[in-house]
Write a structure and sequence with these properties.
It holds the Pfam family PTR2. One of its GO terms (cellular component) is apical plasma membrane. With 706 residues, the protein is α+β, with helices and mostly antiparallel strands. Among the domains are: 217 residues, Growth Hormone, Chain: A, CATH 1.20.1250; 98 residues, Sandwich (Immunoglobulin-like), CATH 2.60.40; 90 residues, Sandwich (Immunoglobulin-like). The longest helix has 52 residues.
Length: 706
């Protein structure tokens, strides 16, 4: 039997529901926080595909609540729906975690498991989304209104607490714990899976205390049936009927006048929803495009502390908790003191402007971030830099024109890559290299289009030799530095950096380009491959986003290194993202929270679930917009940010015009009208015309059989 918390009117069962929601939101946001980098670094997808799949998943999560609401209201009830779909949710998390284990199959297997897992998670989280909060509200008696309101506040706090903690913890599990020799995505997905198991166990644990309401019939389905009947009936009757001024009036043969009036009220609000997806198209990019932007920024706070790029998302959850009381207790009252009529729709329009300004700030940051990025060579061109490891100055010419003005000194760090025309997918080029009047030779190499290369010139006996190595110029997906070693010694060596070991044969040998943690490496061991004494190398600071080549040579009988920076380190600090997060969160408080309040206040009691479904669909369609732009536009990132900001401002203008023509209503007036005005009530003759088994709404707004 349902019990009460000691000395209060709060049901004991709400403790289980709040804990369940905290664990479920930790599970969802924790998995989602590292999802983009998982696509980028683990599955090796490009930025656009990673963004597209991320938003396709997010969109599906907001389409499936309609399915969950139909199942709960029509067949299973809220309790069983939460149980069954939570099991689907857990299975999805487990499949997703298994797909992140490198030893389980090949890349195709990882992709298949990941997609199956994400689909199951989307059906699980979306399916229970409309049920949990409503199920919590069902636990209260009708007279305990204030307690129910406080419960929803605690419920909302548990959502943000779960989001905040998960976006801090799971990126740490991903990066700071090494498994299978790399970042541990299996653990980063596994812990959210475990939290979802805890959520399910806790919810089942309170089973004996819950007040379980049986299915009452789905209002959403009834609304759709009524609209469908009205359209079909109007189509069949071409004659004009002066008594039916609205197209929905053609449903009167089968549905009550009250239901039709309520649907009219709902449709007026749903029309206002049409421009809203554009806000969510910007808002949800915090987990995709903004995270990718952070990977190309300096993440260090001092010498001892740095954050992960996917941890920046926690700012939104943190600032939501701060901004809600600030807006409610300070900003809105101050605006009211200025005698400005701040209606809900005006608040939402201002929220759109704040979101557009956030993307304007993101554009400015992106313009400076890309300055450290090496632009890949287009088709029929290749990038080239010259590494001189010979013991003399050299000059390099192509088609009798110098590649670099002046001589190239030994171990000189190339300033930049040169873009060479190939006029084909690949071309054999002849470089004229000389180090004096008589020491000249031709270096013939084949370059492939769109590649980046290093032409290594070295001493060979009394003359010179050359070789071509391909470079990796993309910044790492998680912002970590890359490095490689060029061995010029006469014996093979191995170097251990962080958890990566580089091994090179004797002579001019280049190692693979590997990713390591950002760190000051002042004492790195270098050892001969066969036998001999190990030495210590000072590599210095390997900074975020940089790509280094270390040339190993001998000086004073011991191996030493000379450092060359192939790709510049990230020089824009991640703190510059804070303004865009502040603006976006301010926009969310004014848009999202106000929008929910507006929807609730403008809908009849029996139609609140219909408007909730419509609201969730705006989020889903917003993610669809990002999916289309990410895959179809093909714009530079800063231009894409600017495009989204411009689109939202345009939509804001349209929304403001629509809002100016909207008349606010009190749904309670509808009930009063039905009680006082007999013209709005159904006559006994009209009731008899309808099928006896038709599901209708009585005057109290409850489902009943006529």
């Amino acid at each position: 039997m349902p019990g009460k918390l000691c000395g209060t009117n709060y049901p004991t069962s709400i403790c289980f529901i709040v804990v369940n929601e905290f664990c479920e939101r930790f599970s969802y946001y924790g998995m989602k926080a590292v999802l983009t980098l998982y696509f980028l670094s683990y599955l090796h997808w490009d930025n656009d595909l990673s963004t597209a799949v991320y938003h396709a998943f997010s969109g599906l999560c907001y389409f499936t609540p309609i399915l969950g609401a139909i199942i709960a209201d029509s067949w299973l009830g809220k309790f069983k729906t939460i149980i069954y779909l939570s099991i689907v949710y857990v299975i999805g998390h487990v499949v997703k975690s298994v797909g992140a284990i490198p030893t389980v199959g090949d890349t195709n297997m990882h992709i298949a498991l990941s997609m199956i897992g994400l689909i199951l998670i989307a059906f699980g989280t979306g399916g229970i989304k409309p049920c949990v909060a409503a199920f919590g509200g069902d636990q209260f008696d009708e007279e305990h209104v204030s307690e129910r309101q406080k419960f929803f506040s605690v419920f909302y706090m548990s959502i943000n607490a779960g989001s905040l903690l998960s976006t801090i913890i799971t990126p740490i599990l991903r990066s700071d714990v090494q498994c299978f020799g790399a970042d541990c995505y299996a653990l980063a997905f596994g812990v959210p899976a475990a939290l979802m198991v805890v959520a399910l166990v806790v919810f089942i644990g309170g089973s004996g205390m819950y007040k379980k309401t049986p299915p009452q019939g789905n209002v959403l389905l009834e609304v759709c049936n009524c609209i469908g009947f009205a359209i079909k009936n109007r189509w069949r009757n071409s004659k004009y009927d002066p008594k039916r001024r609205h197209w929905l009036d053609w449903a009167e043969e089968k549905y009550s006048k009250r239901l039709i009036q309520e649907i009219k009220m709902v449709l007026r609000v749903l029309v206002l929803y049409i421009p809203l997806p554009m806000f969510w198209a910007l808002f949800d990019q915090q987990g995709s495009r903004w995270t990718l932007q952070a990977t190309r920024m300096n993440l260090a706070f001092g010498s001892a502390f740095s954050i992960e790029p996917d941890q920046m998302q926690m700012l939104n959850a943190l600032m939501i908790l701060l901004f809600i009381p600030i807006f409610d207790l300070i900003i809105y009252p101050l605006v009211g003191c200025c005698k400005i009529n701040v209606t809900p729709l005006r608040k939402m329009a201002v929220g759109m402007i704040f979101a557009a300004l956030a993307f304007g700030a993101a554009t400015l940051v992106e313009i400076n971030v890309v300055k450290t990025v090496v632009t890949p060579a287009p088709s029929e061109r290749a990038l080239l830099q010259v590494l001189n490891v010979a013991e003399r100055d050299i000059t390099v010419r192509l088609h009798n024109k110098p590649l670099v003005p002046g001589p190239i000194r030994p171990l000189q760090d190339p300033d930049m890559y040169l873009s060479l025309p190939l006029h084909d997918s690949m071309k054999e080029l002849t470089f004229q290299i000389n180090s004096g009047e008589t020491d000249n030779f031709d270096c013939v190499q084949t370059l492939n289009e769109t590649t980046a290369n290093s032409l290594v010139v070295f001493s060979e006996g009394a003359g010179l030799g050359c070789t071509l190595v391909q470079d990796y110029i993309q910044k790492s997906g998680d912002g970590k530095p890359r490095l490689r070693f060029l061995n010029t010694l006469t014996y093979g060596v191995k170097v251990a950096v962080d958890k990566v070991e580089f091994e090179m044969a004797p002579g001019i040998t280049m190692s693979q380009n590997e990713t390591v943690d950002r760190h000051e490496y002042s004492s790195v061991q270098i050892c001969p491959v066969t036998s001999g004494t190990c030495s210590s190398l000072d590599l210095g600071l390997l900074d975020f986003g940089a790509s280094y080549t270390y040339v190993i040579y001998e000086e004073g009988g011991a191996p030493v290194v000379s450092r060359m920076e192939d790709v510049e380190a990230n020089n824009v600090h991640v703190a510059w993202q804070i303004p865009q997060y502040v603006l976006m969160t301010a926009g969310e408080v004014m848009f999202s929270i106000t929008g929910l309040e507006f929807s609730y206040s403008q809908s009849p009691t029996t139609m609140k679930s219909v408007l909730q479904a419509g609201w969730l669909l705006t989020v889903a369609f917003g993610n669809v917009i990002v999916l289309i732009v990410a895959e179809g536009a093909g714009l530079e990132q800063w231009k894409e940010f600017l495009l989204f900001a411009g689109l939202l401002l345009s939509v804001c203008v349209i929304f403001s015009i629509m809002a100016a023509f909207y008349t606010y209503v009190d749904p309670e007036d509808l009930s009063s009208a039905y009680l006082e005005d007999p013209k709005l009530c159904d006559t006994e003759e009209e009731k008899k015309k309808r099928p006896s088994d038709n599901l209708q709404m009585d005057r109290k707004g409850k489902s009943t059989k006529l």
